[in-house]
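Hello forum,

I keep getting stuck at the same step: I have a sequence, I want structure tokens, and every attempt I make locally crashes halfway through. Rather than fight my setup again tonight, could one of you with a working pipeline run this one for me? It's a single chain of 322 residues.
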Amino acid sequence: MKTFFTYFLILFYTTVVGQTNLVPNPSFEDIDSCYGNYAGLGFDVFQWSGCTGWYNPTYASSDLWCNNGVVGNMQPPHLPEGYQFPRTGNNLAGMLILETIDWEYREYVQCELLSPLKENAIYEVSFWVNVAGNGNQTSSIGAYFSQDQISNTSSFLYLPYNPQVKNDNNNFISDTLGWTLISGIYRASGEEKYMTIGSFDDYYNINLIDYDSINAFGIYMYIEDVEVSESPSSFFIPNVFSPNGNNLNDVFSPNVENIEEWECFIYNRWGQEIYKLTNDVSSWDGRTTVGKNVPSGTYYYVFSAIIENKKISEKGFIELLR
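Reply #2:
Ran it on my machine without issues. Output:
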């Protein structure tokens, strides 16, 4: 009985502390039916297929590829020849990141998260992409989180939002056989419930390399295995302190949990560095490095940390009251 009880405790503890993916149907497996071809403009194939949690936010037509389609029974195309197979399971999403006929045309996929994001909580965000093999490459893809659902069913143009998790500009997606991981860290504002994936850059800002607009219709990508999970790491930056020697709120100190590598620079209003905080020196008493008191006023900080091999940064102000 004791052995069983110990095993139950271990199993329960693992369940409690394990990360939970907030993305419903992360690999597009839960569907009612399969269309089996490209979706036409204005046709939300995700809703038509009963693809749990996912839909098309604009008039542009992202695609859902699956087996045994009722229209065309077309396998996921992989130009110039062959087919692309899912990373996991049987299904995958596909979208035009760029289209040559109308350079502002963009396709997206959107989902409603299983629960809203928590204010100031840190989330690990990831999804996998594969590019159809026409030789054109871009790094312009990311994920945008919002409190309200994005819906513009009368437009197929790019969505003018700034994705909080964005692929590195130098990470051009070129692998036409394997899958490339896109990942990042996001500190939530709070109550974000929707995530939209795609390219949010317009014609003038989309990042391309060696683009051949004559021999290719655009850049087409497949999307698989989307994940949004709360990280055990966290930080909180206070915005006021009073170093007056009364032992109440006398120091400025970021509250950092489960982050080994971080730093916080403090500047005055003229941009001059006043102090630097790290794990080794984690609080500031309102004096310069040579021990001189700084006057009351507004100061600014830049906090940065490495979480899950990803850099996250935040800027803000501190009010110093004496």
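The mean pLDDT is 88. If your local run keeps crashing, start a new thread with the error log.
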